[in-house]
Amino acid sequence: MRLLILLTLCFGTVQLVFCQDTSKVVLPATVKTTKKWYELINLRGYVQVRYNRLLETNPDLKCEQCDRSWGENGGFYFRRIRLIFSGNIHERVFFYIQPDFAGAIDKTLNIAQIRDAYFDLALDKKKAYRFRIGQSKVPYGFENLQSSQNRLPLDRADALNSAFPNERDLGIFFYWAPPAVRERFSHLVSTGLKGSGDYGVAGIGVFNGQVANRPEANNTVHTVARLSYPFEFKNGQIFEPGIQAYTGKVVVTSVTSGVSGKENFEYLDRRVAGTLVWYAQPFGLAAEYNYGTGPEYNPQTNAIEQKT
User: How far is residue 145's CA from residue 163's CA, in Å, rounded to a whole number?
Assistant: First the structure.
């Protein structure tokens, strides 16, 4: 009898355990935490080191605008040392600061300079309309806008890059692009298709005109406008045509003694360019052409002249 009562109690206890009502069990609440603005700041960077003497055929070839290690006495060379700080400090405010530690002034190398320092102010929640204020790339040309870490050629073509030797200037720019097209611009970079980045379907702006890290030298500003649209076909191929132009007056501030020129060495600086890009999937084609007028040195007259 005692054994029977004991077994009954044991099974009764087990039964009570399995028959507990769990519908009234209170689970701890899930707490949603919002990140602070400083937790949204990203840091990345890249370094490019070059040696150009391998298989060299012309030691007299020099290029002050591009790679200064070309030619005689050239050796290992830091082309770029970049750190990039960026982030959304507000739902409508994005900032971007990029110093370069491989700058060069005359024969002094590895000087720290600001390449980019700007913020984007979106006018709507979808960020289709936005202002870019600060020092940034001037929206002129496709290759000029490509990041050096994404671009396939080692250096940019002189034809368009000669408009802005470091691609940048200080000013205010306005960009517009539908959200779907902005995603397409991002896709062209993130998937390795060598896109130029998101500079909008349409862009306009005003800027100093003396290029980045140089003071303004007259009382006029440059203006620029650009249209570019990446058409996507049913097979996934993307074709992007574009057109851009700028105008203003530039002052030649570094002149060798004895060289003559226009009054105050101020010249009309104006260009227009067309772009055609068929993205490589697997084969592609990119072509750009520009036409304009600006200052050019004439060794026969020892003068800086207005040339087309």
Answer: 13
Reduced to 3 states, what is the DSSP secondary structure of residue 41? strand
Pairing mode, strands 285-298 and 238-251: unpaired
Measuring CA to CA, which residue among 213, 67, 78, 241 is closest to residue 154? 67
Contact 148, 48 (CB under 8 A): yes
pLDDT 10s digits, 98-128: 999 998 877 788 999 999 999 999 999 999 9
- In degrees and rounded to multiples of 5, residue 271 shows phi and psi of -150, 160
pTM of the shown model: 0.85
Q: Where are the beta strands (DSSP E) in the chain?
A: 41-50, 77-90, 93-105, 108-122, 129-137, 168-176, 202-207, 222-228, 231-232, 238-251, 266-278, 285-298, 303-307
Q: What are phi and psi of 143, to 5 degrees?
A: -65, -35
DSSP structural state of residue 36:
P
